[in-house]
Write a structure and sequence with these properties.
binds adenosine-5'-triphosphate; disordered N terminus
Amino acid sequence: MTATMMTTDASSSRTSGRSLHLNKVGKRFGTATALDDVTLSVEPGTFLVMLGPSGSGKTTLLRGLAGIERFDTGAVRFGSTVIDDGRTHVPTERRGLAMVFQDYALWPHLTVRQNVAYALKRHHLDRHEAARRVLDTLDRVGISAKADAYPQELSGGQQQRVALARAIVGSPALLLFDEPLSNLDADLREHLRVEIATITRESGATAVYITHDQAEAFALADVVGVLRDGRLEQLGAPESIYTRPATPFVARFTGLAGAFAGTVVGRFDVGTVAVGVGDHRLAAGIPADAVLDTGDDVDVLIRGAALRLDEPAADAATGTSGGGVPGRVTDVAYRGRGYEHVVATAHGALSGIFAPQAWSRGTECRVVIDPAGCFAFPRRVPSTI
Ligand SMILES: Nc1ncnc2c1ncn2[C@@H]1O[C@H](COP(=O)(O)OP(=O)(O)OP(=O)(O)O)[C@@H](O)[C@H]1O
């Protein structure tokens, strides 16, 4: 990828983002399906994060939106303009977009100021106006002190700030981010994540950001799309994906404490079933379209946030009084604000159980489970979740 391809003519879209619509987008590479019937729509100015493991199609989607790659099937509309379908393929430089890459992709022979100014070339601005906008933008991303440095004289975090400045200086309507934080260390990642979130929202652009990091996705996004093997498994606000995962894959990929095998023993309420796990009864949510009957085998997937440690039940051997599942602490890790524990139970291990005080290894305990963080999915044999 050359730097010339990273910013495109945004002169017609200086003020705001536009809605983005993908309709049945597909892409194959030989026999590999990279994208399979992906359909989604987001409002103007939405920060969309596409989340998925390696090989799920994130890069292919981003490159298709950028116009670097052409989709095989389906259509992409940006605002009222079709930018890609069977007949139309608007070239990258006419899509009004800018892209930020994982490896920064700055011109090594240009200074910071010149790298950013380069992105304004197509705007045909007056020299002074262009210089002012470049400096304003460098100020916004906190790198103006390095305006005359060359990229190789900067740290990774500083280079990514320059790349961000170069992306936003032309006020594009669409900003594309290709895992921009993955080469940075933890502290810097968090810092720059906040700045990307703030600066992008201030710019008003619609953003599409790809990552395999669930925490990053949830922290950044207005809307998250979860990709698996080229298919969109769920699209929604981070909160709805966390509290109502549509599939076992989405639940697992967005963070689980553990899973228990159980059997449906009844219904509690609309959307909630009672599941027998050994001698215990758990309440668990079920996906909107799921049909589960008494006697069906299920996997109960459990979020860490749903778990709380308590003293063992009065009848600790069965755990039948006081609710919760008896267990023994097998690991405790200090996390600054408190401690995360791993607890072994008769039905499997539960990890990431937070408590403000440490429960030491070997302590008998009871894990109290909030039904809001339990999801029952039909068991697959053999299990593929
Ligand atoms: N140029 C290509 N030639 C052949 N197969 C490709 C090509 N690009 C992608 N693929 C295949 O398409 C699928 C999706 O790849 P893609 O790079 O889009 O996934 P990804 O989610 O971005 O993965 P990663 O996080 O590892 O970059 C994979 O199976 C990949 O091997």
